[in-house]
Design a protein that fits this description.
flat; 4 helices; mainly alpha
């Protein structure tokens, strides 16, 4: 029940997330991304889905988004 309050109904969150991922995968740039970049973007979609379906003020959603982007940024600077 608590998870539903922060993450929203699973079927709603899943629909949003899958729609966002379809946009990413349909782009020609998708093939140029490293696996880490792809995963980061997909996790971002997942977090956006939770924000839109659930509690938009749940800070962990936003912190997680920044964390995945930071991991890729560190990879890019190598």
């Amino acid at each position: 029940a608590d998870r539903g309050k922060t993450h929203g109904p699973f079927h709603e969150q899943a629909a949003i997330t899958q729609a966002l991922k379809a946009v990413l995968r349909g782009n020609v740039g998708w093939e140029r991304l490293t696996p880490a970049m792809r995963e980061s973007l997909e996790m971002d979609c997942h977090k956006v889905g939770r924000i839109l379906a659930g509690d938009l003020d749940f800070a962990d959603h936003w912190i997680d988004r920044a964390g995945y982007a930071t991991l890729v940024a560190k990879e890019c600077s190598k």
